[in-house]
């Protein structure tokens, strides 16, 4: 049995796990369910690690049901496990395992008689995400996209006692489903033109036509679903509402990997379907996605700085980072993909750890509000506090964390395209890092002055429903061990040369359309059938420039956090004038931006329509038939 | 040019926009979930339109000759999958609406103000 | 954003989308075109697999992996409803009471229920032959059972609805689909490969794996829909949360 034959198991095993847990949850006690779920998730990690190992020999391809095409024409669905796809699936399984471990004895009230419901939903979520990462068929991608979506809506609204999770889950559900239907419209248009559903097949058939209005509309519609999941501005409004209210283990998964899957999907769809003749020219893709990526990164950073609800703050930080990932992908270069892949992996560990630590605060103090928690978590400063600070620094890109290395590689590739792009990377990661650092200093040490407790029109984080049975108990061990392991994982990614070497090859394979076509048996006749990988240059790991920029954004983050903490207390005319300026900027520019984030369903829907219209105009202008 | 030619395709686009308009202006979450279903029906119409073949019959060969001309069965299978997906998503969203109503006595999306800024 | 601004923004966006979508439609093949390459291949493959209903062959054989994902969404919806519509300690529950129904309604319900159940089973069983299949038949079966609620009252529905059993049947059927796929792998061929004997064209046993998966889907859809509806009915009719239940008052009137 070959590794390629085992590819569908990445979906089938978690599905079977969900069924087993749903059934066993009636018989087993609470502890039994937790052990079973953890064992099952560990088995998934082992499976994917094995597939990752095998994928070093080349792209693994599986025609489900043995519907292998003859003469390049078939009726079946193909799973394509290249290193980026399998690597992403491996990341998903690792985070699922982390979330399930973290959630041991977590919920107060599992549904009566259905104790396995929560872990079963998590495993279904895993199946959906793994299927989406591995499929090579456009409609199949839609199905798995909807699977992960539907399960995520249910998980987000899990705390039905509080209206906010219900509201967040509804907005999440309606907007993401609407976007998915836009994608399906695009898939139908592509089917009408090419008569195919496989990604590689569609891409090959597009070559016979010119890039006209049909291609632009289909491309934008397909992209809409993916970029709404990927929270690109102005499609991002649902994300902070959903991430702020979901149960903590779910937040770890949503921010850690689900949002990034949207960016991955956009990249996959572009390279496989549209990067060839008859598709979307590279300059159009590069211009549009780079500019929206930069806007998303800046907007996320500014909004992150303004938050006091810690989960919402982390959600905006995810938006900011996703903007950077978009920039990395939009460079359309192997280096950009390699850097982004590493950045995504490092970010997943760090962001999941930060959410996990926020969950500890919620567990101990029943609040995730930066202001009301001021100085209240001093007794946790040696455990959760240190990890929170490390997470903040890693978010800012401190070497040698994986986030730092990913940022350095992406930044370098971006700098070769546009000289000022690295400045965006440094600035936005410094702001998001500074925000988390500021929070850590206030919550765990009571640094700076007591923040002004008066709340404007904003989301507060106190009066949260505690997620646990007994807020007075000591912190359960898994809730501290899991974030420690996640941070350590992110550190290892930056320290070891193995992942970079593997991802350097993976980036080259991912950006090679010919290699993808060859892998699924659609090699153009004039090219050899085996994937052609250009001779591999020795992978770049840490460079002086990368370390310098990483340190720069870390120092900048520390300086910004210090300003926020102690700035208000500074004496002197200059400090007074600067404070006045900051207040004016906040009043004039930031307040209107914040009021746009109204959390209303109607506003969300209209921003979705506006985003589609903007993308349509941008691509039609840039694509000349 | 035959003006009626692209009409079925345009109906799909119309349905999508009408659904979004409903979502934008909705004052009732049950209505909003209904509007989402309207928007989704655009995908059914587009898929089935794309697969139509003039003079084709249903792609079921239990009582017709295997040589008879049929419409594209693939889009019908896709539409069936799509219907099930839509129904389940609708069920989940309605479950959220019911809980909002039962526990928090509002289903007006514009009166939900807890998440902003 | 104010309501007026929101609607204005929508009209602007909608105008752009409408214009470009129309331009795209003008470039599409003509409505009713004879060119359907994938469709033609799917029909050929269906006849090779001796399945009469092409759509069932696509859903349960050629693109069965799509259906696997879709069944999982349904299973996820059942689990989601279990989680979202669960009773919490805040809920107060009331008991269903007998309700008066017109004798004619009662009679028609009693007559229709078995007929509808039989129709559902027929549609599931003939999925590989005639229009219909696991999904359609499953929904008919689930609806049929609820005739008891329409024709009598909730207590009658409760008596004929083995809820726990159906909940387990749903999970088992969802698992059966996955395991049927694994069977191929264990037998040394591909996942979800149709390895059963294909039988004679246009008979109940034709199509190999298709009728088996079809039956599993039928069971899953029927039990899944019944269970989800049970949660909905419980929440809307008999659970009063802290905010009271206006749904209930309306429903009882």
Automatic annotation (TrEMBL), chain A:
<feature type="transmembrane region" description="Helical">
    <location>
        <begin position="141"/>
        <end position="160"/>
    </location>
</feature>
<feature type="transmembrane region" description="Helical">
    <location>
        <begin position="250"/>
        <end position="271"/>
    </location>
</feature>
<feature type="transmembrane region" description="Helical">
    <location>
        <begin position="340"/>
        <end position="362"/>
    </location>
</feature>
<protein>
    <submittedName>
        <fullName>Multicomponent Na+:H+ antiporter subunit D</fullName>
    </submittedName>
</protein>
<dbReference type="GO" id="GO:0005886">
    <property type="term" value="C:plasma membrane"/>
</dbReference>
<keyword id="KW-0472">Membrane</keyword>
<feature type="transmembrane region" description="Helical">
    <location>
        <begin position="417"/>
        <end position="437"/>
    </location>
</feature>
<feature type="domain" description="NADH:quinone oxidoreductase/Mrp antiporter transmembrane">
    <location>
        <begin position="136"/>
        <end position="432"/>
    </location>
</feature>
<dbReference type="Pfam" id="PF00361">
    <property type="entry name" value="Proton_antipo_M"/>
</dbReference>
<feature type="transmembrane region" description="Helical">
    <location>
        <begin position="477"/>
        <end position="496"/>
    </location>
</feature>
<dbReference type="GO" id="GO:0008137">
    <property type="term" value="F:NADH dehydrogenase (ubiquinone) activity"/>
</dbReference>
<dbReference type="GO" id="GO:0042773">
    <property type="term" value="P:ATP synthesis coupled electron transport"/>
</dbReference>
<comment type="similarity">
    <text>Belongs to the CPA3 antiporters (TC 2.A.63) subunit D family.</text>
</comment>
<feature type="transmembrane region" description="Helical">
    <location>
        <begin position="213"/>
        <end position="238"/>
    </location>
</feature>
<feature type="transmembrane region" description="Helical">
    <location>
        <begin position="116"/>
        <end position="135"/>
    </location>
</feature>
From TrEMBL, chain B:
<keyword id="KW-0472">Membrane</keyword>
<feature type="transmembrane region" description="Helical">
    <location>
        <begin position="6"/>
        <end position="24"/>
    </location>
</feature>
<keyword id="KW-1133">Transmembrane helix</keyword>
<feature type="transmembrane region" description="Helical">
    <location>
        <begin position="73"/>
        <end position="98"/>
    </location>
</feature>
<dbReference type="InterPro" id="IPR050601">
    <property type="entry name" value="CPA3_antiporter_subunitC"/>
</dbReference>
<dbReference type="Pfam" id="PF00420">
    <property type="entry name" value="Oxidored_q2"/>
</dbReference>
<protein>
    <submittedName>
        <fullName>Multicomponent Na+:H+ antiporter subunit C</fullName>
    </submittedName>
</protein>
<keyword id="KW-0812">Transmembrane</keyword>
<comment type="similarity">
    <text>Belongs to the CPA3 antiporters (TC 2.A.63) subunit C family.</text>
</comment>
<feature type="transmembrane region" description="Helical">
    <location>
        <begin position="29"/>
        <end position="53"/>
    </location>
</feature>
<keyword id="KW-1003">Cell membrane</keyword>
<dbReference type="InterPro" id="IPR039428">
    <property type="entry name" value="NUOK/Mnh_C1-like"/>
</dbReference>
<dbReference type="GO" id="GO:0005886">
    <property type="term" value="C:plasma membrane"/>
</dbReference>
UniProtKB/TrEMBL annotation, chain C:
<dbReference type="GO" id="GO:0005886">
    <property type="term" value="C:plasma membrane"/>
</dbReference>
<feature type="transmembrane region" description="Helical">
    <location>
        <begin position="133"/>
        <end position="152"/>
    </location>
</feature>
<comment type="similarity">
    <text>Belongs to the CPA3 antiporters (TC 2.A.63) subunit B family.</text>
</comment>
<feature type="domain" description="Na+/H+ antiporter MnhB subunit-related protein">
    <location>
        <begin position="107"/>
        <end position="226"/>
    </location>
</feature>
<keyword id="KW-0812">Transmembrane</keyword>
<keyword id="KW-0472">Membrane</keyword>
<feature type="transmembrane region" description="Helical">
    <location>
        <begin position="107"/>
        <end position="127"/>
    </location>
</feature>
<feature type="transmembrane region" description="Helical">
    <location>
        <begin position="172"/>
        <end position="192"/>
    </location>
</feature>
<dbReference type="InterPro" id="IPR050622">
    <property type="entry name" value="CPA3_antiporter_subunitB"/>
</dbReference>
<feature type="transmembrane region" description="Helical">
    <location>
        <begin position="212"/>
        <end position="233"/>
    </location>
</feature>
<dbReference type="InterPro" id="IPR007182">
    <property type="entry name" value="MnhB"/>
</dbReference>
<dbReference type="Pfam" id="PF04039">
    <property type="entry name" value="MnhB"/>
</dbReference>
<protein>
    <submittedName>
        <fullName>Multicomponent Na+:H+ antiporter subunit B</fullName>
    </submittedName>
</protein>
<keyword id="KW-1133">Transmembrane helix</keyword>
<feature type="transmembrane region" description="Helical">
    <location>
        <begin position="68"/>
        <end position="86"/>
    </location>
</feature>
């Amino acid at each position: 049995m070959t590794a390629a034959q085992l590819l569908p198991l990445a979906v089938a095993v978690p599905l079977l796990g969900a069924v087993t847990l749903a059934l066993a949850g009636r018989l087993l006690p609470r502890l039994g369910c937790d052990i079973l779920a953890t064992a099952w998730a560990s088995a998934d990690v082992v499976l994917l690690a094995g597939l990752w190992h095998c994928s070093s020999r080349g792209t693994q391809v599986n025609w489900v049901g043995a519907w292998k095409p003859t003469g390049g024409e078939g009726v079946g669905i193909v799973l394509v496990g290249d290193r980026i796809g399998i690597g992403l699936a491996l990341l998903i399984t690792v985070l699922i395992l982390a979330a399930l471990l973290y959630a041991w004895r977590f919920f107060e009230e599992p549904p009566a008689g259905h104790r396995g419901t929560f872990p079963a939903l998590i495993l279904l979520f895993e199946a959906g995400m793994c299927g989406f990462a591995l499929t090579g068929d456009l409609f199949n991608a839609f199905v798995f996209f909807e699977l992960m979506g539907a399960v995520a809506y249910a998980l987000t609204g899990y705390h039905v006692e509080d209206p906010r999770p219900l509201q967040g889950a509804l907005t999440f559900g309606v907007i993401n489903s609407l976007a998915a239907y836009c994608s399906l419209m695009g898939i139908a248009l592509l089917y009408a033109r090419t008569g195919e559903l496989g990604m590689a097949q569609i891409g090959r058939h597009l070559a016979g036509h010119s890039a006209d209005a049909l291609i632009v509309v289909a491309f934008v519609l397909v992209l809409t679903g993916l970029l709404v999941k990927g929270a690109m501005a102005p499609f991002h409004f649902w994300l902070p509402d959903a991430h702020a209210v979901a149960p903590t283990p779910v937040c770890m998964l949503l921010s850690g990997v689900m949002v990034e899957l949207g960016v991955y999907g956009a990249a996959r769809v572009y390279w496989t379907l549209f990067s060839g003749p008859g598709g979307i020219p590279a300059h159009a893709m590069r211009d549009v996605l780079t500019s929206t990526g930069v806007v998303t990164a800046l907007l996320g950073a500014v909004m992150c700085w303004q938050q006091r609800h810690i989960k919402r703050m982390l959600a905006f930080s995810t938006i900011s980072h996703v903007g950077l990932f978009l920039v990395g992908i939009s460079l359309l270069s192997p280096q950009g993909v390699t850097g982004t892949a590493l950045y995504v992996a490092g970010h997943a560990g760090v962001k999941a750890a930060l959410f996990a630590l926020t969950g500890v605060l919620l567990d101990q103090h029943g609040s995730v509000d930066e202001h009301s928690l001021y100085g209240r978590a001093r007794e946790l400063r040696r455990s959760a506090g240190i990890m929170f600070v490390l997470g903040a620094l890693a978010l800012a890109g401190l070497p040698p964390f994986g986030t730092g290395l990913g940022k350095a590689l992406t930044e370098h590739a971006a700098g070769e395209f546009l000289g000022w792009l690295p400045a965006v990377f440094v600035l936005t990661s410094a702001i998001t890092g500074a925000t988390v650092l500021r929070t850590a200093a206030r919550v765990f040490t009571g640094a700076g002055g007591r923040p002004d407790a008066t709340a404007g029109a904003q989301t507060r984080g106190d009066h949260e429903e505690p997620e646990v049975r007994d807020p007075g108990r000591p912190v359960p061990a898994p809730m501290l061990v899991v974030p420690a392991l996640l941070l350590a994982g992110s550190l290892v990614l930056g320290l070891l040369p193995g992942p970079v070497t593997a991802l350097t090859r993976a980036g080259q394979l991912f950006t090679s359309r010919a290699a993808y076509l060859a892998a699924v048996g659609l090699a153009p006749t004039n090219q050899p059938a085996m994937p052609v990988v250009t001779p591999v240059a020795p992978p770049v790991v840490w460079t002086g420039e990368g370390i310098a920029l990483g340190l720069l954004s870390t120092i900048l983050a520390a300086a910004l956090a210090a300003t926020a903490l102690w700035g208000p207390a500074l004496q002197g005319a200059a400090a007074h004038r600067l404070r006045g300026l900051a207040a004016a900027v906040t009043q004039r520019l930031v307040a209107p931006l914040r009021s746009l984030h109204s959390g209303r369903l109607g506003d969300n829907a209209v921003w979705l329509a506006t985003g589609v219209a903007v993308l349509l105009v941008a691509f039609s202008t840039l694509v000349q038939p | 040019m035959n003006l009626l030619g692209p009409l079925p395709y345009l109906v799909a686009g119309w349905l999508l926009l009408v659904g979004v308009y409903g979502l934008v202006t909705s004052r009732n979450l049950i209505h909003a979930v209904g509007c989402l279903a309207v928007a989704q029906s655009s995908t059914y119409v587009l898929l089935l339109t794309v697969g139509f073949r003039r003079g084709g019959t249903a792609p079921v060969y239990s009582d017709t000759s295997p040589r008879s001309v049929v419409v594209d069965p693939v889009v019908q299978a896709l539409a069936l999958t799509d219907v099930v997906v839509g129904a389940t998503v609708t069920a989940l969203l309605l479950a959220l609406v019911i809980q909002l109503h039962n526990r928090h006595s509002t289903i007006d999306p514009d009166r939900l103000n807890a998440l902003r800024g | 954003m104010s309501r007026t601004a929101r609607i204005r923004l929508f009209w602007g966006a909608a105008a752009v989308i409408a214009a470009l979508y129309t331009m795209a439609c003008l470039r599409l093949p003509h409505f009713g075109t004879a060119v359907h390459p994938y469709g033609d291949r799917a029909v050929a493959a269906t006849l090779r697999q001796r399945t009469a209903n092409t759509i069932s062959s696509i859903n349960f054989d050629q693109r069965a992996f799509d259906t696997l994902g879709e069944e999982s969404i349904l299973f996820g919806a059942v689990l989601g409803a279990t989680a979202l519509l669960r009773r919490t300690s805040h809920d107060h529950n009331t008991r269903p009471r007998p309700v008066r129904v017109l004798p004619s309604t009662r009679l028609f319900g009693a007559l229709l229920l078995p007929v509808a159940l039989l129709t559902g089973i027929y549609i599931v069983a003939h999925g590989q032959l005639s229009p219909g299949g696991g999904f359609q038949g499953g929904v008919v079966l689930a609806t049929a059972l609820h005739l008891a609620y329409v024709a009598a009252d909730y207590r009658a529905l409760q008596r004929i609805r083995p809820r726990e059993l159906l909940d387990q049947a749903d999970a088992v059927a969802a698992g059966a689909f996955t395991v049927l796929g694994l069977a191929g792998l264990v037998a040394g061929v591909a996942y979800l490969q149709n390895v059963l004997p294909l039988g004679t064209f246009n008979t109940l046993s034709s199509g190999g794996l298709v009728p088996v998966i079809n039956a599993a889907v039928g069971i899953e859809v029927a039990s899944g829909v019944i269970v989800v509806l049970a949660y909905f009915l419980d929440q809307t009719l008999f659970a009063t949360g802290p905010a009271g239940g206006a749904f209930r008052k309306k429903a009882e009137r």
